[in-house]
Design a protein that fits this description.
mainly alpha, 80% helix, single chain, MetI-like fold, 8 helices, 230 residues
Length: 230
């Protein structure tokens, strides 16, 4: 019966109600992984520029590992291989699809965020640090109070680009049967055999999420400009 419905009738009655559930999962994946990735990425960036060789080498290894291997492999490793490895040490761990997806996306995104933060921090003139140290601020205080606040406006555009990429990369978690947008799209398309309509709306869904993120970032950037951010 659904095969006889017009494009709009099929879209409103069948596709959109089902894809809306997938969009919500995609949004949760993006926001959760993005938030964790931002925090972890900042920590990795600070380790990279800490001046302590061991910590710097560790952060470099982390960045190289997660940027140099496919995200799909990382998702599969965390979901399938990690519990098996831990089982050899008598650690019984079962990772559900959503936590596994968040873990993989967060760890991967953090590697890219770390380089964005590092570049933003290093873009601040050294004179800022020297002036702060001359005023009696410690290295930690200088970083937290002087350097990091000035990097916000500079790193917003690349951060938004990375969040947009993260939104699209959430589609990879469909391989572990997590019901995000692409997985839902595939299920609906296979069930009703009306492929182009389903994938058309899926593309629109991803595009809307990216546009919303870009609009929010633009608003934040304008507010920083009004406050005289550098």
């Amino acid at each position: 019966m659904e095969a006889e419905l017009s494009f709009w009738a099929f879209s409103t009655n069948v596709i959109l109600p089902r894809l809306s559930e997938g969009i919500l999962v995609t949004l949760k994946l993006t926001l959760t992984s993005g938030f964790i990735g931002l925090i972890l990425g900042m920590l990795v960036a600070l380790l990279r520029i800490s001046g302590i060789k061991l910590l710097s080498y560790f952060s470099l290894f982390y960045i190289t590992l997660f940027r140099g291997t496919p995200l799909l492999l990382q998702i599969l490793f965390i979901y399938f291989a990690l519990p098996t490895i831990l089982a050899n040490y008598n650690i019984d761990l079962v990772i559900d699809a959503f936590p596994a997806g968040v873990m993989a996306l967060s760890l991967n995104a953090a590697a890219y965020f770390a380089e964005i933060f590092r570049a933003g921090i290093l873009s601040i003139p050294k004179g800022q640090s020297e002036a702060a140290r001359a005023l009696g601020l410690s290295k930690k205080q200088t970083m937290l109070l002087i350097i990091i606040p000035q990097t916000y406006r500079r790193i917003i555009p690349p951060l938004v680009n990375e969040l947009s990429a993260l939104t699209k990369e959430t589609s990879l978690v469909s391989v572990i049967s997590l019901g995000e947008l692409l997985y839902t799209t595939q299920r609906v398309g296979a069930k009703y055999l009306r492929i182009w309509e389903v994938y058309l709306w899926a593309g629109i869904g991803y595009l809307l999420i990216v546009l919303i993120l870009s609009a929010i970032a633009l608003r934040i950037e304008k507010k920083l400009e009004q406050k005289g951010g550098v």
